[in-house]
Amino acid sequence: MSVISQTKQRYDNLTIKQKEVYLGYALILPSVLLVAITLVYPLLYNFYLSFTEVPLTPAESPEWIGLENYMTLISDPDFLVALRNTFIFTLFSDIGATVIGLGVALLFTKEFFGRRLARGVVLLPYIAPLIASAFVWQWIWDPTYGVGQFFFADLLGLYDSGTDLRNSLTMVIVFESWRYFPFAFLLILARLQSIPDELYEAAKVDGASRWARFRDITLPELKYVIATVFLIRWIWNFNVFADVWLFTRDVPVLGVFVYQTGFNQFEQGIAAATSMIMLVFLMLFVAIYVTWVIEW
Amino acid sequence: MIGLLMAAVRESIQTTKSVFSGAFRQSQIESTLFDRLVLYGCVGLTLFFVLFPFYWMVVTSIIPSTELYRLPPAVIPTEFTFDHFREIMDAQVPFYIYFFNSFVVAVISSAMAVGISIFGAYSFARLEYPGRAFMVRGVLLSYMIAGILMVVPIFQIVVWLGLVDTLTSVVLTHFIFTIPLGLYLLGNYFRSIPKEIEEAGLIDGYSRVEVLLRITIPMSVPAIVAVFLYSFLLSWNEYLYASIFLNTQELYTLPIGIEFLQFEFDDVWGEIMAASMLTTIPVVIMFLYLEKYMMAGLSFGSMD
C-alpha cells in the first residue's frame, strides 16, 4: 500500500469530530502561518534589531550593541520632540474627529432636504485617497496662492499673510480631524438611530430642555460608541505616518521619525528601537484605557 | 484586553451595518422656522467643510496655470483647459503607468487576501479544535500593529529575499496586511449564517469542504465583496511600503507617482490636482455603486 492510500485509509477511519479538527487546522494554517511569518516574526526580529547596529549591506549581519540605541534616543532632542508631537497630535486629532463626528451625526438625526445624499457625501474625506486629500490641503494652504491663505489671511486678516500654516502641528491636526471625522460620524449615527423616539418625547412632555435631553438621554446612550471610536482612532493616530508625511515634512511625529532615521539616514537599529518604544506606549495606553477609563 | 478590543470592534461594525440599510427614523418633534434656519445653516457649513477641498481639486485641475497663480484666486473659474491632464499623460513616465501598477497590485493582493481568508475565516467560525481561541486573538492583536511599527524588519526581509524594487514585494505586503481584516469580517459573517443550513448539506452527504464551497461561499457574496473592496482601497492608498520598496519610476504606484510629479514639473499644482482627481474618481465610483458593501470595511477604523 502506498503512503498516500495509507494516509487516506487512516483519514477515513477518523470520526467526524476528528476530521473536523484536522480540517480546521488545514484551513486556518495558511492564514496563521502567513500572519505569523509577517507579523509575529517581524515583531520579534524588530525587537532584536533594536539592540543592534544594522549594516548598510545585507550581506553583513547586525552587530549587537545592547541598549545603545535606546540610550541614543533618550538623549536625542529630535526624538523627544517627535514623542511630544505624537501625543499632542494623537490626543487632539482624536478629540477633533470624535467631536465633529458627534456634531454632524446629531445634525443628521434631524430631517432636512437631501439628507440621504448628504449622508454619503459626508463620507468623502474618509474614502478619498490620502494622497489626493493631503495634496489638495497643501495647495489650499499654500502661503502665496493658496485659497485658504487668501481668505483667512489676506481677506479676514486672521493671521499674517505669507505664514506657512502647513508647518504647524495645529494644521496637521485639523487635516486629520477632517479626514477621519466621517468614521466617528458613521458609528455614532448608527447608535443614535437606535435610541427610541419615545424617550425624547416623554422628556419633552416633562419639560426637559434641549440641553437636558441631550445630557440625560443622548450622551448616556452614546457613551459606549464614543469610547470605542476614541480608542480605535487613538490606535491609528498614534501609529500615523503617511497622513503627516504627505501633508508636511516639518512636523515630526514618531512615525515620521522612524521613516527618516531608517530610510534617509539608514540608522535602522535606531528606527527599530523607536518602533519598539511606540509599540510599548501603545500597548500601555490600550491596557490602561480598557481597564480603568471605560467600563465596558 | 484583546477580548475587549475585539468586542469593541465587533460592536462598531454591527451597529454601522444598520445605518446605511433602511430609511432614516422620522423625527416626530416639530420645529420652528428659526430651528429650520439654524439646521440648514449647519448642514450647509458641514457640506462646505467636507466638499470644498474636492471642489478646489477639480477647479485646479481644469483651469490654465495663468489663472492658478494669481490673487485673488479664481474661486469661480471662467477659463478651462485640459492641459494639466495632457501634461501628466505626456510626461516621461506617463501617468497611466502608475495607474496600471496600482490597479494590478490592488487587484492581485485583494484577490489573494480574499481567497486565503475565506478558508481561514470558515475554520475560525465553524470548526472546533484546540488552540482556536488563541489564534483568533492573535490575529486580532495585529489590528494594533500598523505598518510603521514593522517597517525596518520587513524591509530587511524583503532585501534578504531579493525583492527590493519589484511590484511582487508590494503585492505581498498589501496581501498579508489585509488578511487579519478578511479573517475577522468573513468570520463574523459566516457565524451569522444559520448552522442548520450547513447541517442540512452535511446530512445530504456533502463534505465540509463541499459545504463551504457550495453553500457558505455563495451565501456570503456581500461579505466577500466587502472584504475585497476594503483591501482594494487599502492597497490603492498605501504609501509607506511602496515608497521604501520601489526605486524605478516605471514601477511606481499612484501615491508615489503623484508625489514624484512634484519634482518633475514647476508650478506643479495643476498637474498634481489632475493626477489626484484621476486617483479619486475610481474610488468614488466604487463607493456610489457599492456603498452598502463598503460599510463593513469603513467601520473597521483605518484607511491607511
Automatic annotation (TrEMBL), chain A:
Swiss-Prot/TrEMBL GO biological process terms: transmembrane transport
Subcellular location per the Swiss-Prot or TrEMBL entry: Cell membrane
Species this protein is from: Natrarchaeobius chitinivorans
Family named by the database record: Belongs to the binding-protein-dependent transport system permease family.
Protein keywords: Cell membrane, Membrane, Transmembrane, Transmembrane helix, Transport
Domain annotation ABC transmembrane type-1: ranges: 83-289
Membrane topology of this protein: Multi-pass membrane protein
Name assigned to this protein: Sugar ABC transporter permease
Pfam families: BPD_transp_1 (PF00528)
Gene Ontology CC annotation, any one: plasma membrane
SUPFAM superfamilies associated with the record: MetI-like
Coiled coil regions in record: none
InterPro entries: MetI-like, MetI-like_sf, UgpAE/MalFG_permease
Gene3D superfamilies: MetI-like
Tagged with keyword Cell membrane: yes
Transmembrane segments: 21-44, 87-108, 120-140, 169-190, 224-248, 268-294
UniProtKB/TrEMBL annotation, chain B:
Domain ABC transmembrane type-1, first and last residues per copy: 99-290
Top-level taxon: Archaea
CDD domains per record: TM_PBP2
Record InterPro entries: BP-dep_ABC_trans_perm, MetI-like, MetI-like_sf
Cellular location(s): Cell membrane
Transmembrane segments: 37-58, 95-119, 140-163, 169-190, 211-233, 272-290
GO biological process: transmembrane transport
Keywords tagged on the record: Cell membrane, Membrane, Transmembrane, Transmembrane helix, Transport
Alphabetical list of Pfam families matching this protein: BPD_transp_1
Membrane topology field: Multi-pass membrane protein
Record keyword Flavoprotein present: no
GO CC terms of this entry: plasma membrane
Coiled coil: none
PANTHER family noted in UniProt: INNER MEMBRANE ABC TRANSPORTER PERMEASE PROTEIN YCJP, MALTOSE TRANSPORT SYSTEM PERMEASE-RELATED
UniProt similarity note: Belongs to the binding-protein-dependent transport system permease family.
Name of the featured protein: Carbohydrate ABC transporter permease
